[in-house]
Design brief:
Two copies of one chain form a homodimer. With 552 residues, chain A is of the alpha/beta class. Chain A has helices at residues 40-48, 62-71, 75-78, 94-99, 117-123, 130-136, 160-167, 175-180, 211-226, 274-281, 283-289, 291-322, 353-356, 386-393, 411-414, 493-506, 516-522, 527-531, 540-547; strands spanning 15-21, 50-52, 55-56, 104-109, 141-145, 182-184, 190-192, 231-236, 328-334, 357-358, 360-363, 375-377, 381-382, 424-430, 450-456, 459-464, 470-473. The interface between A and B is large, with 98 and 98 residues.
């Protein structure tokens, strides 16, 4: 590690490369044991660091999950409970914490953050001020902000990727849609990639012009240009998220392979749980549970992952040549998984492992991490852990950020010092914003259309605000096929986890305008008397004792 | 009610007069049955409206309680958990809600609000901007902002009340202290009113120059000057809060009276509860439990209340003359009570009725309220109910403010239409900021030094984060002398209330950047397809059905 003429503390890394995929399941990688998909570049990354095999997101949909990654806070604390829900302007993000360490937090790709325009107006923050730019970009310095979903109904006027595609010979108002995310079908017709029937055909654009290639190029350009500046680069791919189309040759790379059988049983369809039943009956649940979806869409999904792996190979080569692999913490993860027909569901928004468990690979290049290189960790890890990990890796303190950061740094695990202090992970799933909510008829207060999952080493407990609660014994039933909530043989397991979840709710830090330091300073013996608030003293003699801190 | 040439809806009132005392116990009024104190003016008010006999604050100390009154939100939602804890700039206050109804929200007196200076800097809100003036004054238009505690160690440079006292012949840097809140003791020495031994002597200033007189004058001046402008005036007295000194003749008006016996038993001193024991052992607990405190301080406390009643008499006469009693909702309440040695405690900060129960009188002058005039209501009422009551009284909608306002309007009760929908009240008590916290030795995370009380019609359940939980049966034990938490004869009462409290925690609206309307609009069938996010459609035919809202 070259730290000549640097202000970075000896023990600190210079940079963080924070790579995120969108909707990538924990098991859709070679290194996590996929039966046909090979991801040699990501696997090589795992060989250099620690692969956390039990890593979980804190929200079951893009927006809420990402805000947990970016703020280091649980969903109930940051409040952006679903896509398009604005993040409160008072929520500090990665950019806030890392700029205090003189590190630029740079974005290439997606955040899915919605700025709180109502608060901006109320507080009269000029929309062209640096502060609003910072807030409205979720604390990132937007090298290239592209949320990746650009349907014709709401195409940004000046999307750089569309300009790029036009420059490459793909004209039109929205070549993102008509070229990068559409196909020519068997009849020779242009067909939108949104439609599932498009999945087996190659995207109109070639691989080197795909979103994945383009974002990788932007990241490489940034890293080259940054030189010795310190940075935290968030390379945030939209893929393998919908639309399910991929350029040749990835479109039929897995078409002939035997896909793993879906994790679902007929018994599941007999559930009386109103939310699960509605998820089954929803358009998306039905579409993704069709046999032909499995046959046509899953190979394309795997092709999209393979494409990411290939482009990451380019990025990693570049980093190596620049020497950046020696001074950069590298993270590879996802914002949530995807049902892909498992449990008769599609997409995300609910609490099964297919959704809430994600890939998580972390490489610390320092010698202290040599003993854990190439290992797999079974520690329970959460999205909120990454920001404290970055703070510590870059030489900052987490102790003074306790009212903000709710996760724990993974550095001690990477350095083989100890395991995490965590006994369980929590993920919050709001389904009330989904059209499927209409399958339930009248329910209580819209904002309580949600469930909270607590998962420990063995059990998964789901507190469902509507319908009964759920309990899975993951040792006995890793596929989550048997709800044991009403099973008397489970004894007090559900009640105990319920109580743990209550404690978890009460321990959240909604209130960030005060710190432990303020509490301790305020309660110091003699403090009130010294401030002149002389309550509880009979006379001058007692007051003198109070001033000396002897009467409290 | 004269509403000629007015834009106020027929059904709406023009104004709100929101009178608050500080540290006034629910039982320290004539109309609530005090054995020696007479408060004819407040009693007359009760005769014109409804006296809520079971009204509770949501926080057990000034700052947190007041922020619940001013935001209409529970403490865990607004986050300002103790005195001097800044209120987040994103918390909407009374001033936000009422200005939407074209009503000025005006302050005369105390708010105990601390502005969030750190957020101001981060958001680059100019400190001299109208927006910051609004935020830093807690949404009030400060006719006279005076938090009433001005120890020499931190006297504001330009306190109007000090200027006033100087103009009246009381010189010095801080006549608030040396004149309004000091006495000449038996030895002819000037003695600070902070010291309890000062209680039996008259304040240096005469009654007509007291803080209570001065604030009443400011309120009267404002009301006269406002004419037909619509207003919500918060007249917020610092008294009967410490320092316990009062001008003649109030200083010895009750000196000869037999004071009611304190509510405490020797058995209470045997408690093993670490928090209660620490409250007993604290300086304030010990000071207020002395027999001489009861003898000397309680009469002064009653004198301070009597003084308020007399000055309110002046105010009410003025309102009557101006015709304002016909178009103004009038509220009289307090921010919390005072132990005054009951339970061997002093001050507040804990969860007994002496602290959490407050006077609450509400007068609606409209004819719809005629049937409830002069009645006493046993409905469970909370501080958070006032703001929705004001919104409704002034002609606004509460339905569209649901993500903000957590209480319920009392107008239906005042109009005799129905009771409240509330089954219990909640009050949160943080004691970690108190010097007494040092009596507990090491405890867990400082911010969890707190308790949450749930009180229903019969029981009071206290979830204490440190030490065991508590249960009182108020039917059998209105004095809260017998903790029944471990009493097996209580069956599942504690467990049931614990679960109710968990539901209450989960129903809180920390997240205010989205509304029920947004949830319902987002989940409308066909909405995603129409926005162009065409997830879950196999082909064009399905998409058409989706666009028609038929496939969800």
């Amino acid at each position: 590690m070259n730290q000549l003429e640097s202000n970075v503390p000896d023990a600190a890394l210079r940079n963080v490369l924070f790579i995120m995929c969108d909707q990538l399941r924990w098991d859709a990688l070679g290194c996590s044991g996929h039966p046909c998909l090979e991801t040699p570049n990501i696997d090589r990354l795992a060989g250099k660091g620690v692969r956390f095999d039990r890593a979980f997101v804190n929200g079951a949909v893009c927006g809420s999950s990402r805000m947990s990654y970016y703020t280091g806070r649980y969903v109930v604390s940051h409040g952006a409970r679903w896509n398009q829900v604005p993040l409160e302007v008072t929520q500090k993000t990665m950019g806030d914490h890392l700029r205090e360490l003189d590190v630029r937090t740079v974005l290439v790709g997606k955040t899915h953050m919605r700025a709180d325009e109502a608060a901006r107006k109320r507080l009269a923050i000029p929309s062209n001020s640096p502060e609003w730019m910072f807030l409205s970009e979720c604390g990132f310095d937007a090298e290239e902000h592209d949320d990746g979903l650009h349907p014709d109904a709401r195409v940004p006027m000046d999307l750089p990727y569309n300009r790029f595609l036009r420059s490459q010979g793909f004209p039109g108002d929205n070549p993102w849609h008509t070229a990068a995310n559409s196909v020519i079908d068997a009849d020779g017709e242009l067909c939108s990639g949104w439609l599932l029937r498009s999945a087996p055909f190659p995207a109109v654009v070639p691989d080197e012009l795909s979103e994945t290639a383009y974002m990788t190029d932007r990241a490489i350009e940034f890293i080259r240009r940054a030189g010795d500046d310190r940075w935290c680069l968030h390379l945030s791919y939209i893929k393998p998220h919908w639309p399910y189309v991929v350029s040749a040759p990835y479109h039929d790379m897995y078409a002939g392979e035997a896909m793993p059988a879906p994790n679902r049983t007929e018994a599941e369809l007999k559930t009386t749980h109103p939310v699960i039943r509605a998820l089954h009956r929803s358009r998306i649940g039905r579409a993704m549970s069709r046999t032909e979806t499995r046959q046509l869409v899953l190979p394309t999904y795997l092709g999209l992952v393979k494409q990411i792996d290939d482009h990451l190979g380019r990025l990693f080569s570049e980093l190596e040549q620049l020497g950046r692999l020696d001074d950069t913490l590298v993270v590879f993860t996802s914002d949530h998984g995807e049902y892909m027909g498992d449990h008769w569901m599609g997409e995300k928004d609910w609490i099964n492992e297919e959704v809430v468990r994600v890939p998580m690979i972390v490489i610390d290049p320092r010698s202290q991490a040599d003993n854990t290189r190439g290992t797999t960790s079974n520690e329970l890890v959460e999205a909120v852990d990454l920001l404290p990990t970055f703070v510590e890796a870059l030489g900052g303190e987490n102790e003074t950020r306790k009212q903000w950061l709710e996760g724990e740094s993974l550095i001690p695990v990477l350095h083989g010092e100890r395991g995490t202090r965590r006994e369980f992970v929590v993920c919050e799933a709001d389904w009330g914003f989904l059209e499927m909510a209409n399958h339930l008829g009248e329910t209580k207060e819209p904002r309580l259309r949600r469930a909270t999952m607590l998962r420990d080493e063995r059990f998964k407990y789901v507190l469902s605000e509507i319908g009964s609660n759920l309990l899975y014994d993951l040792d006995e039933d890793p596929d989550e096929q048997h709800d044991r909530f009403d099973d008397s043989s489970m004894g007090s397991v559900a009640a105990d986890l319920h109580e743990q979840l209550f404690e978890w709710f009460r321990s959240r830090h909604h209130d960030t305008t005060f710190s432990d330091e303020m509490i301790n300073a305020t309660s110091a013996p003699g403090r009130t008397a010294k401030s002149g608030i002389m309550i509880g003293y009979w006379d001058e003699e007692e007051l003198s004792a109070g001033m000396r801190g002897e009467l409290y």
